[in-house]
Amino acid sequence: MSTATTHETLLVEEREDRVVVTLHRPEARNAISGRMIAELHEVCDLLEADPKLLLLTGHGGVFAGGADIAELLRRGRNEALQGINSRLFERVRRLPMPTLAAVDGWALGGGAELSYACDLRIAGPDAVFGNPEAGLGILAAAGACWRLPELVGESIAKQVLLAGRNLDAAAALAAGLVIDVVPAEKLLDEAHALLDRMARSSATALRLTKLVVDSPGAHPVADDLAQAVLFEGQDKKDRMTRFLEKRSRA
């Protein structure tokens, strides 16, 4: 069972184990506006209160063609210090359960940075990732300058951020930025199949694994604490018992 909610800039579908969010500003190639940022914060409210998997995609064969340039032009020092986009993207990054961006078409500027904030990305054949901010007299300040090197390495990140290189679907796959490239008409089906696979895992184990992976410098204490919680859980006992019973029958 699912429920669909229409916001001004988003289409939101709530399912039992996941929330599907479609960026929906067709008149502006799904450019990320202040209103969209506010509505994505509402989605984060939902997912923090009731942790579920998140699938994030774009309407009309475009993920997001960047931030809203008209709004950026009006922003000054005070708005930059507020971190309007970066705070939202960091919140997406820190959501309790895994997040997946299904990207086809343009994912530029803030749109690319939003996809970088997700745990995983899957691409259609026309996907293009790029950060052309320097050409507009600004920098990619919503995470690309440090997330992208972590995702694809310093050399490729500098090609994108400094030399203006766009990564098409094949280059994104080769760089490890996306998990797979699939036909456009199968993109959402394959994205859901990936989420289905994750949903079969222990939700608590997924949450703690994500927390540990995202906690550099805290190892091995963080690993030990998370494992201690999981070792005491009934879910672990049930799953391992089923595994051993299945193997004994083989």
Automatic annotation (TrEMBL):
Name of this protein: Enoyl-CoA hydratase/isomerase family protein
The organism's taxonomic lineage, starting at the top: Bacteria, Bacillati, Actinomycetota, Actinomycetes, Kitasatosporales
Stored Gene3D superfamilies: 2-enoyl-CoA Hydratase, Chain A, domain 1
Spans through the membrane: none
Organism of derivation: Streptomyces ossamyceticus
Annotated Pfam families: ECH_1 (PF00378)
Origin superkingdom: Bacteria
Alphabetized InterPro entries for the sequence: ClpP/crotonase-like_dom_sf (IPR029045), Enoyl-CoA_hydra/iso (IPR001753)
